Amino acid sequence: MSTDELVTPGRGGGLGDVIKSRYLLKLLVSKELKVRYRGSVLGLLWSYVKPGVQFVVFYIALGVFLGLEQSAGNPRGLPNYAIYLFSGIVLINFFTEALGNAARSIVGNGGLIKKIYLPRQLFPVASVWVSGVHFIPQIAILVVACLFNGWRPSLLQLAAAVAGFLIVTLLATGLGLLFGAVNVYFRDAENLVDMLLMIATWASPVLYSWMMVREKLGQTFFNIYQLNPLTVGVETFHFAFWLPTTDGAEAIPPHLLSVWIPVALAISAAVLLLGQLVFRRLEGRFAQEL
């Protein structure tokens, strides 16, 4: 065997190994779902309960008490604020669950990693896939609610939603690989991720309108704000699900389709590449560190 064929022990071929090990990925996703709901009465129904409770709390606090819901006595509010709010919550919940679980996936599967070798990237990627499974019933509820409110999206709006989901998936996978690897060596990474996830809901227009950001902080800060891929992802969901349920007079962020979606895709892809590079650099000593 030539030296060109030798590889460092414990290091795999990156995300390419995940594609080659699709069957193992399926087994890991199935295992995570079974372990998570073992002994649970509601099981997968928690995918409906958690976002439902979250939605009710935010809707009452912000839509009713703080007047973000448009009404006859409050014309400055957002029309169909319930749809606006839930379409953002659905996407941000997917991100927070995916990143939170992916960041803990290597340490959480330490026993398995120390016993046998399999592509380490499978663990954070499986965590993202599990979050995708939980995302499906939530998006189904959103679609039903939109249909009851006269939802008639265009193909462009549906394509924007797919692009938004792809942006957030790439971002969550990249950050999951990055923090999942770093967390093996520095357990403070978990606390940093928890802090980021706490900020995520408020750092994107889930609960409020993007216009508030521009009006209060100016165009320069708004441009910086738009560089957050989560912001663009949430805005694409508003464009696809909320906007068609209004009279069409509501504005979307300028250049959302022509500028910000491509920029967000590029940033998320760069984060994925960075996460993959860091993961491959650190994975060689996972078994020893765990």
TrEMBL record:
Residues 42-282 form the ABC transmembrane type-2 domain. Keywords: Cell inner membrane, Cell membrane, Membrane, Transmembrane, Transmembrane helix, Transport. Pfam families: ABC2_membrane. It is found in: Cell inner membrane; Cell membrane. InterPro entries: ABC2_TM (IPR013525), ABC2_TM_bact-type (IPR047817). The chain crosses the membrane at residues 52-69, 81-102, 122-148, 160-186, 225-245, 257-279. Belongs to the ABC-2 integral membrane protein family. This is Transport permease protein.
